[in-house]
């Protein structure tokens, strides 16, 4: 049976659910008392769950009352006895529920943390909640003795490798990782190769763009379009506060053209947006990041950030770019969509998770009120709303320091 891909939460019947994993596969080997069930793709499944493959393997053994055999060097994960694939998938769902999903928001984007008093906590990167694991389960003893490998603290300029959505990776070669528009093409694809790939992916993404437009696009009635255009023009007029040069205030500047195009093409995919940025010659301009943050995103920002993340990943290559992104977020939530103020921590987390915001930059921004992008009161309001995320960053640092001391 060929391996497929399924939702991590298999109770979510949505083929566009962003959290996916390989379908757990099994292979029966041996006979009689030596019969055993091999899980050939356990490493791939565990990687999708951000857990060591030993954890679900030991979980299976605990639930089935069976011995397990683990050979990580040769990627062999075995549960003694003959076990049906369907049964192991059900147990995997139980493992995910107990040791992966956030106890609050049920998001699988969590890390396991072992506290000083040997309690296991699921640290959610989506909502910031830390929920305790049920320590009565037998697997917890194994986890305490074999804690997750500590993730190194990210410093400025360091980013975890992750697949770039829509293929907009930084080096133009389709590999994981983040590059910058200023990077040389050594070892990467040429501009022609990038263009060809973008065209191919744009064709593949068109059906999704249609679905997104149908489900949650902005109101396209004449009255709504007129109102948004008015707001856009007012916003673009103020885009140059402290940015680049004053000549860009012209309504025909590339920035104004980009803002108008985004407003008029709400159904555009990430690939199409980036191609427009390239067409206007703005792929290296930090102010273009600000324009996109305040015009590309709407009141549905938390849904739109994953969709357009590759554009920001491709364009943000310096601290100045990151500050422009934060300025765009200030204008988005502070002026255009004030209803997003309570969601500021989640918005920052979403960008932080795709490695376009560095910890030091966010902390500096969050503790220094500025009138560069919005008025002082609005600036204070946005930063006040960001406090839960800033607190989470500090606590994560404290945990790292404590573990270093231990």
What is the residue-averaged pLDDT? 78
Percent of residues in helices? 40-55%
Low-confidence sequence ranges: 152-192, 201-220, 232-249
The oligomerization state is: single chain
The number of distinct β-strands equals 9
What is the strand content?
5-15%
Q: Gap between N and C termini, in Å? A: 47 Å
Q: Structural class from helices and strands? A: alpha+beta
Number of H- or I-type helical stretches: 15
The number of domains is 2
CATH architecture of the largest domain: Alpha Horseshoe
Level-1 CATH class name of the largest domain: Mainly Alpha
Report on this structure.
- The protein has 406 residues and is of the alpha+beta class.
- It folds into two domains: 5-145, Defensin A-like, CATH 3.30.30.170; 165-405, Serine Threonine Protein Phosphatase 5, Tetratricopeptide repeat.
- The chain has helices spanning 42-49, 54-64, 85-99, 139-145, 191-216, 222-237, 254-264, 270-279, 286-295, 301-315, 319-336, 344-353, 359-366, 376-385, 387-405, and strands spanning 5-7, 20-22, 27-29, 36-38, 68-71, 76-80, 110-114, 120-124, 130-132.
- The strands form three sheets. Strands 3-4-6-5 form a four-stranded antiparallel sheet, covered by helices on one side.
- 33% of the residues are buried.
- Residues 152-192, 201-220 and 232-249 have low confidence and may be disordered.
């Amino acid at each position: 049976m060929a391996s497929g891909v399924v939702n991590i939460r298999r109770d979510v019947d949505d083929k566009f659910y962003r959290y996916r994993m390989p379908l757990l596969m099994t292979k029966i080997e041996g006979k009689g008392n030596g019969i055993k069930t091999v899980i050939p793709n356990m490493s791939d499944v565990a990687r999708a769950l951000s857990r060591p493959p030993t954890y679900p393997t030991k979980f299976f053994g605990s639930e089935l009352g069976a011995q397990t055999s683990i050979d990580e060097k040769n990627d062999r994960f075995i549960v003694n006895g003959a076990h049906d694939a369907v049964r192991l998938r059900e147990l995997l769902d139980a493992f995910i529920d107990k040791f992966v999903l956030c106890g609050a928001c049920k998001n699988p984007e969590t890390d396991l943390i072992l506290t000083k008093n040997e309690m296991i906590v699921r640290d959610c990167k989506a909502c910031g909640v830390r929920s305790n694991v049920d320590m009565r389960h037998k697997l917890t003893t194994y986890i305490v003795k074999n804690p997750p490998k500590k993730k190194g603290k990210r410093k400025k300029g360091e980013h975890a490798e992750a697949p770039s959505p829509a293929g907009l990776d930084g080096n133009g070669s389709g590999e994981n990782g983040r590059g910058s528009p200023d990077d040389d093409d050594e070892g990467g694809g040429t501009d022609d190769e990038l263009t060809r790939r973008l065209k191919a992916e744009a064709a593949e993404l068109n059906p999704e763009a249609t679905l997104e437009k149908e489900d949650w696009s902005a109101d396209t009635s004449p009255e709504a379009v007129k109102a948004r255009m008015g707001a856009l023009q007012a916003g673009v007029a103020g885009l140059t506060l402290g940015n680049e040069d004053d000549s860009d205030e012209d309504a025909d500047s590339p920035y104004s053209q980009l803002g108008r195009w985004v407003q008029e093409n709400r159904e555009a995919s990430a690939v199409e947006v980036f191609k427009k940025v390239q067409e206007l010659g703005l792929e290296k301009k930090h102010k273009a990041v600000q324009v996109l943050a305040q015009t590309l995103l709407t009141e549905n920002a938390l849904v739109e950030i994953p969709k357009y993340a590759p554009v920001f990943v491709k364009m943000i290559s310096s601290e100045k770019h990151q500050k422009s992104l934060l300025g765009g977020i200030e204008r988005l939530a502070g002026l255009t969509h004030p209803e997003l103020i309570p969601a500021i921590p989640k918005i920052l987390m979403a960008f932080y998770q795709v490695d376009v915001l560095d910890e030091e930059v966010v902390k500096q921004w969050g503790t220094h009120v500025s009138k560069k992008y919005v008025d002082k009161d609005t600036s204070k309001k946005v930063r006040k709303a960001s406090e839960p995320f800033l607190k989470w960053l500090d606590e994560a640092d404290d945990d790292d320091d404590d573990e270093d001391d231990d």
